[in-house]
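tmp note - TRAP transporter fused permease subunit
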Amino acid sequence: MRFLAYLFNTSPRRRPEGWLARPLTLYCAAVSAWVLSAATWMRVDSLAMTIIFLSLILVPSFLLVAAAPGSDPRRPSAIDWGLSAAAGASALYFIVNIPATAERISLLSPLSWHQFAFAAIMILLTLEITRRTVGMFLMLLVMSFIAYNLLGHHLTGTLGHGYISLQHFVDINVYTSDGLFGTPVRVAATYAFLFVLFGTILEHARGGDFFFGLSAALTGRSPGGPAKVAVVSSALFGTMSGSPTSDVVATGSITIPMMKKLGYRPEMAAGTEVAASTGGSLLPPVMGSAAFIMAEVTGLDYLAICFAAIVPAAVYYLGIYVQVHMRSKTLGLEPLAPEQVPRLRAVMISGWPYLIPLLGMTAMLVMHFSPTLTAAVASGLVWLVALMRPSTRLGLGKTIDVLSETTIRMIGVTGACAAAGLVVGGITMTGLASKFSVLAFGLVGENDFLVLLLSAAVTIILGLGMPTPSAYVLAAVLVAPTLVNDLGMPLMAVHMFILYYAVLSAMTPPVAVASFAAAAIAQANPIRISLEAMQLAVTAFIMPFAFIANPGVLQPWASAGDAAEALAVILGCFAIAIGAETARRTDRLWGWAGVAAGLCLIMPGPEPKILGLAMAAAVLVRMRRRRTAMAVS
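out:
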C-alpha cells in the first residue's frame, strides 16, 4: 500500500496568502477570460490556441500545486519559483514564435539550439506538473513511452521499430499538432475549459443546493432515502462537473454523513456515493469532457455521441437505484426524516431558474450549435440566473474569483492531457497502435470476446489515477484501431466501450481516485469502498460488451431491430442488477440464475435472448412466490 501511495499520491493544492494571492487570482482570471474570448469571438488558429493555452497555464501551476505532500501549503519554495520562471520564459518564447512554428516544415527544417532547448524545457515542465497533479504513475508511464520511442530500435520482433533520434522525437512532439500541442490539449483549451467554467459558476450560484433539494424531494421519503438522494443528486451534479472525484467531494460531503447517521455502514454509504458519482462522466451532455475528444478523434458528430450515451447512462443509474432500493428494504434502512424532506413545489418555486441554463444548453445542442458556443452561452445564462437573487449574485469580485478558480481546476486536467499528447505522438511515430493487434492476437488468439476482455483490462490500467479525458485518449489511440480495423467492430460502439472502462477506472482497485476521495469523508477503507461501489455498478462493467454485441442499444430509434436489441439489453442489465443483489442478500442460487438470464439477454443473436427471457421469467415467478410466502408468514 505504501508503494501504491507513492505512485498515485498527488501533491496538495496551495492557497497562497499575502501579496502573492491577488496577482495569482488576477492572472488566472485573465487566462479564463482569454480562453472564453478565443473560443467564442476571436479567430485563433487551433495550433496557436493550444500553444498559448498550455504555455499560459503552466506559469502559475508550480506556485499553486506543491511539489510534495509535506510542502508548505501557503508559500512556494525556491524550486517552485524557478519552475514557474522557466514556464514563463518558455511561454514567452513559444507565443512570440507561433508564426515561425506554423510555417516551418517538420523534419526538413533542422531545429536550432534554442528551439530544441525550449522544447526540452516544455516537455520536462509537463512531466513535472503531471507528477504533481496526477501522480508518479502517469509520469512514469509517459517516460516509458518516451524511452520506447528513443530505444525501441534496439528491440527485435513485433515491438521493434526504426531509429528515432532525439531531434526527431522533439520536433514531432513539440513543433507539430501531433504531440504536446495536439488534440487532448486543444479539447482542454476549448470544450473542457468552458464546461468546467459552467460547472464552477453553477456551483458558486448554489445550483448544487437546488439539485440536492430536488433529489431529496423526489426520493427522500422512500426506504433508503439518503442513498437514493445520493444517486439522483450525483447524477444531476455529475453530468455538469464531469469529474467523479469532484462529484464525490461536492455531494458526498452531505450524503455520506447523512447515510451514516441513519445506520448505513461507512463502506456502503461511501460506495453508493462513488458508484453514483462515477456515472456522471457517462451522462450527457458533458460526459467528463471525453465526448468532445471522442468527436475530435473519431469524426463522429458530438450530438450523435450524446444521443448514443442516453440509454446506457439511464440503465446505469436505474441499475444502481434498483440495487440500492433492494438493499435498503433487506436491511430495513429508513427514509429521511420528514423534516429533512423538502416539498417538491417549494423546491421548484425557489429553484426553477436553474433549469434555464440546462434547457438552453440542450436546445442549442439539438440545434447543432457548437459545444464551445453552447458551453459559453450556458455559462452566461447561469451568471444571469445568479443575478436574480441577492444571495447568489456574482458581482465583479466574485466573477473574478470564479474565472480564477476555473483556471486552477483545469491545471490537473491540462497537465494530464499534455502528457497524453506526448504518448499519442510517440505511438504515432512508432506505429505501436498497429502492433497492439499482433500482441493481442498472440496472447488470446482471434477470439473477439477475449480481445475485448484484454482491451477492457488495458483501458482500466491506463486509467488508474488518471482524469477521464487522458485515460480515454490513451486507450482510443492504442486499443481502438485493433477493434475497429482488424475485428471490424462499429466505430461508435468501440469508442463507447473504451469510454466506459476509462470512466470505471475511477472506482476500480487498487487505485480508485473516487473511492479515496470518499474514504476521507466516510473514514473507511478505500478498497472496501471500491468493492462496494463495483457491486452496485455491476451492470456498468458488463454493459460495454453489449455495445459490441448489440449496437442497436446506442441507436434504438434507428429501426425496429435496433429497438428490440436495446430492449433486450435493458432487460438484461436489470436482470443482472436484481440477480446480483438477490444473490448477495437472500437467495444465492436464484440470484445467480437471474445474472445468467441477464447475460443471455445481452448476447448477440435471438436464441440466447429467448433463453434469457425464459430464465428471467422463471426467476421473477420464484421471487414473487417467495415475497408472498414472507408476507403470509
